[in-house]
Amino acid sequence: MSATPEKTTAKTDASSPELKRVIGPKLLLLFIVGDILGTGIYALTGQVAAEVGGAAWLPFLAAFAVATVTAFSYLELVTKYPQAAGAALYVHKAFGIQFFSFIVCFVVMSSGVTSASAASRAFAVNLVAGFGLDVGVGTVLLIAVLFILLVMFVNFRGVTESVMLNVVLTLVELSGLLFVILIGFWAIAGGNADFSRVVAFETPGDKGVLLAISTATSLAFFAMVGFEDSVNMAEETKDPSRIFPRIMLTGLGITATIYVLVSICAVAIVPIGELAGNETPLVTVVQTAAPGFPISDLIPFISMFAVANSALINMMMASRLLYGMSKHGVLPSFLGKVHPTRRTPWASILLTTAIALGLISYVSLDTEGSVVALLGGTTSLLLLTVFTVVNAVVLVLRRDKVDHRHFNAGPVLPLVGAAFCAYLVLPWSSGRPIEQYQIAGVLLAIGVLLFGLTWLGRRLVGSERKISDDPADLTTKVD
């Protein structure tokens, strides 16, 4: 789609300070690629294979297609309104209902907590695999809990993500996946793989083909959800209306290609029975393809590094969103407390950490199912719900004109995106387990309860604290 000129009737506040625009095309591409790479592909390939057998690459490809269609809607909105706050901003501009904007923002925050919780489990199982430990479920849970507490400590200390650090982390994560692809191709070329498994479609006995693909795609989408974080970098990007479309679509294309190649190598090298349900699938792939190769011992630690990065970024995002919502009057004021010396939102950090600890402990009680798959599926459920709304909002905001050229997604793609995202959200079409809806419902109930307590508190004490009407304020930065 091409950019189209639009005229505006909206006013801009010239007196508002702007963030420094320091991110160019290359750094934005690395940010998007690094944000998408991580827990999803490192931990969920086996779970996807459990649903569709050797055709595990198909759900990743389908997830990429849905993500791309949704990205077109995001591109129209981010180039039209190059501000932080993302989905909450767009929903507020479309409907002007503060509670609705809050719910969208809280759902995004919750997705960060569920994603970090999934990463904590993935970190634990990769640490166990890396050191060759023979431990039970309780020890794995303990490692995951200690990891979340470590993330809390780092978050409290106020580690600020720098552009150069993001580049380094992205390159390390990417290197692990490239190693898997290269070793996989080497094993396939040497006749040490069964390439026929790549087209072997196998579904669980209780599911038809369409439902199995839908279930696997819903899960695989967890690997593709990171791209929407980049819209919060719009105010720090040079000429976002011009470079965002090309860079976001390029980033999605690069990561989709890597994910499809990784999944093809995985099913060709490792029998489906060993891959299905495996929480360290890429470790198994490399150790099967090249058992004597040193990289096979390194992959678990690269996986740990990748998921640790995902967890830290998501928990920092979640705590800052809670802080921003509190600071501007839509959540209890205690969540806006900042440590006097570290200058970090310690109360919000404690609450998000408590939620993450509760999640990882609760889901670990089920020793039969995959913890990473359950939490990863809940993350995709939350964000696919937001994506459904964003695709619809694009059409609502077509009546709002702006005075600069911006990307135009056209009349059809937003409808297609909304339909497919909703399809992957609904229980009867997505094949999601009921536990994902239960977890999402509890998180949403926590948000509604906090919002209600805040509203009631203001009514009872007659608080004069002003409630901000600008959803961009919800992403207030502390450090």
UniProtKB/TrEMBL annotation:
Membrane-spanning segments: 27-44, 56-75, 87-109, 129-156, 163-188, 208-227, 247-272, 298-323, 344-365, 371-397, 409-426, 438-456
Record's bilayer topology term: Multi-pass membrane protein
Annotated compartments: Cell membrane
Keywords per UniProt: Cell membrane, Membrane, Transmembrane, Transmembrane helix
Record-linked Pfam families: AA_permease_2
PANTHER family: AMINO ACID TRANSPORTER-RELATED, INNER MEMBRANE TRANSPORT PROTEIN YBAT
Protein name: APA family basic amino acid/polyamine antiporter
